[in-house]
């Protein structure tokens, strides 16, 4: 589209549809005439899309998600001001760092622009209860593109075992993060620590309302039993993406 726009082609204007399964997107030319664009094919003519700021909305939503999970006992609450760190935190902690990542299909059609991705990392906390940490991944915008974020995905000091699970999701712009947190917590709180690690991906996916498998938010990929010592490329269980990880020591200044 940018090539045509730079060449002086007058752009169309459209409002981004909320239903990603729509077949037609209504756009308007400079004279106000309505045109129907194929939702499944990227237009060659430039199109300006009017939409919410998905990145800001996702960041705000993740705050709601983490706060609600903490309130329901499946994620830690923020430490109180002036609270002393634990001995483990004072020395540092091991993390798993994403060195590169790619998804084959970001579940986002052209008329919704760049994807807004986030991960749900689940495992058993130090108290033996299931916990979920949400991780924003604002750089992961387009499928078929390799990104090199060097992002910490897991803080292993938060977990009892050296294994965790990851579910990658894409926000379609009207996600109810409160409902998402409530649904996940309702299922995970029924799982008790059996003295050995239990994969939690299936439990997280089972908690998602059926409507969220068709629109907001979309399940993109998942990784079972990510190990603290894991390194190299990990293909997703769905076959829709991969990531490479390496252990990373975070020391206190």
Would you give an account of this structure?
This protein is of the alpha+beta class. The chain has two domains: 2-50, no CATH class; 54-78 and 88-251, no CATH class. Helix content is 19%, strand content 33%. It contains five helices and twelve strands. The strands form three sheets. It has a four-stranded mixed beta sheet with strand order 3-2-1-4, with no helix packed on it. A hairpin with a 5-residue loop joins β11 (232-235) and β12. α4 (177-188) crosses α5 (201-207). The protein is elongated. The chain starts with a helix and ends with a strand. 30% of the residues are buried. The model is unreliable at 77-88 (pLDDT under 50).
List keywords for this structure.
four-stranded mixed beta sheet; 253 residues; 5 helices; single chain; elongated; four-stranded antiparallel beta sheet; 2 domains; alpha+beta
Task: Briefly say what this structure is.
InterPro entries: DUF3103. This is DUF3103 family protein. This protein is α+β, with helices and mostly antiparallel strands.
């Amino acid at each position: 589209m940018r090539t045509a726009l730079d060449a002086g082609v007058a752009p169309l204007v459209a409002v981004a549809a909320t239903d990603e399964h729509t077949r037609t997107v209504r756009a308007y030319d400079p004279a106000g005439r309505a045109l129907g664009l194929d939702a499944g094919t990227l237009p060659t003519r430039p199109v300006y899309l009017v939409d919410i700021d998905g990145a800001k909305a996702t960041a705000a939503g993740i705050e709601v998600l983490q706060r609600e999970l903490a309130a329901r006992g499946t994620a830690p609450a923020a430490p109180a001001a002036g609270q002393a760190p634990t001995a483990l935190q004072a020395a540092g902690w091991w993390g798993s760092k994403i060195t590169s990542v790619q998804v084959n299909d970001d579940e986002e059609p052209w008329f919704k622009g760049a994807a807004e991705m986030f991960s749900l990392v689940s495992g058993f906390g130090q108290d033996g209860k299931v916990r979920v940490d949400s991780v924003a991944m604002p750089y992961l915008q387009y499928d078929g593109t390799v990104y090199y974020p060097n992002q910490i995905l897991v803080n292993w000091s938060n977990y009892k075992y050296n294994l965790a699970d990851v579910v990658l999701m894409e926000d379609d712009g009207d996600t109810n993060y409160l409902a998402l947190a409530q649904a996940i917590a309702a299922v995970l709180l029924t799982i008790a620590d059996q003295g050995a690690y239990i994969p939690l991906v299936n439990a997280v996916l089972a908690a998602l309302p059926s409507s969220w498998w068709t629109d907001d938010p979309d399940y993109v990929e998942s990784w079972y039993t990510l190990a603290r010592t894991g390194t190299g490329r990990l293909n997703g269980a769905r076959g829709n993406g991969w990531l490479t990880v390496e252990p990373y020591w975070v020391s206190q200044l």
